[in-house]
From TrEMBL:
This is G domain-containing protein. The keyword Signal does not apply. CDD domains: Ras_like_GTPase. InterPro entries: GTP-bd, P-loop_NTPase. Residues 22-114 form the G domain. The keyword Glycoprotein does not apply.
Length: 374
């Protein structure tokens, strides 16, 4: 499999009204990059997301389909990313979705990937799924495909049993399937990926609940259904940490009163500081969600989203007279060939991209004190 060219890793997201746009979502490690590699017929050369900074959490990949149609795959991070906080992830997805919808760019569908190797739906996988459902909303579920991955790593019987549990449980996949979502198995090859992707070619465009809430409702991210779902997760962690802090402070006061071993007091002091830091972090994450779409767009580093047709018909349509017009329009400087053609992008290297961790946070002593006395 050859590597991807920079022209196929879209530096700008400027689809035409005839183009097909499909978002790929799922938790980290569910196989999003592998799936996109299969669709494009080239090796992305990355594991996870190619980010230039931790705020740019959405990537775009373009597949030339015909002279009038390109397929855009939108690569998104999961809510368990090691270098992005959950608030960063929701802001990045909300920024792209909201900005696109404001410019009349709509999705043809969303593919949600889930590892069939996971024996149970717990922890990060459950959080990812619940936020995803709120992000989509019931009206968009007819344009959602729920796809299991990594079937090659489990026995057929185990895979089928886990798939049945996903479908039989309403809070997992059951509700979504009953509201129009499709269910597929991805077998880690190009044929399987293209079969799943091609089903969106005839789908009507759709507006997600988050787009409606941010654009039409003018809500802050925290007040969207997805934002409230994430905030409920923060509250669970907050309550747990609050109990830990109260217990640690009580132990510390008792140790100081009894003049226990100085090393024990130091350990308790360190434990108290660690819990305070975690509590402050949760507060800061929640505060990050108190933001409007306009503010998110103003501070975003995502590639520019342009309205369909903003370049005019001549500039937006590939020319048959040569490659200059295509290059000028931001399209690949090559004929519109089937991307499945063998060796089409042979020898082209992956553009260097990386990501940076989120900045450190500082404890908010006053807010922590209010927790303790409340």
């Amino acid at each position: 499999m050859s590597t991807i060219s920079e022209s196929q890793h879209a530096t700008k997201f400027d689809p035409r009204s005839t183009d097909i746009i499909v978002a790929v979502m799922g938790m980290t490690g569910s196989g999003k990059s592998t799936f996109i590699s299969h669709c494009m017929g080239v090796d992305l050369g990355i594991v996870g997301h190619g980010l230039q900074g931790y705020t740019q959490a959405v990537d775009f990949y373009m597949i030339p389909h015909s002279e009038s149609v390109n397929v855009y795959l939108v690569d998104t991070p999961g809510f368990d990313d090691t270098n992005l906080t959950d608030s960063d992830v929701l802001k990045a997805i909300g920024t792209w979705m909201g900005d696109a919808y404001k410019k009349d760019i709509k999705l043809n569908g969303i593919i949600y990937l889930h590892r069939i190797t996971d024996p149970r739906m717990v922890g990060s996988a459950k959080k990812n799924l619940f936020i995803f459902k709120k992000l989509c909303g019931p009206n968009a579920l007819k344009n959602v495909t729920l796809a299991t991955t990594m079937w090659e790593a489990v026995s057929q019987s185990d895979g089928e049993r886990r798939e049945h549990e996903l479908l039989a449980t309403q809070e997992f996949w059951g509700f979504m399937r009953s509201n129009g979502a499709k269910v597929e198995r991805h077998y880690n090859n190009r044929e399987s990926a293209m079969r799943i992707l091609s089903k969106f070619f005839t789908e009507e465009q759709v507006v997600t609940a988050m787009q409606e809430e941010l654009v039409n409702g003018g809500k802050e991210l925290l007040d969207t259904q997805a934002g409230m779902e994430l905030n409920s997760e923060y509250r669970k962690v907050e309550e747990k940490l609050k109990r830990e802090l109260q217990s640690t402070v009580a132990e510390l006061k008792e140790a100081q009163k009894k003049k226990d071993d100085e090393s024990a007091v130091m350990i308790l002091e360190e434990c108290r500081k660690q819990v305070e830091d975690q509590l402050t972090h949760i507060l800061q994450e929640r505060d990050q969600l108190k933001v409007t779409l306009a503010k998110m767009i103003a501070t975003s580093t995502l590639p520019i989203v342009r309205a369909p047709g903003s370049f005019g018909d001549t500039a937006r349509r590939p020319s048959n007279t040569g490659n200059a017009d295509q290059a000028e329009a931001g399209r690949p400087a090559s004929p519109y060939l089937d991307p499945r053609a063998s060796g089409m992008w042979q020898g082209m290297e992956v553009p260097a991209r990386g990501r940076s961790p989120a900045p450190p946070y500082q404890p908010d002593e006053q807010r922590i004190h209010r927790w303790l006395v409340s």
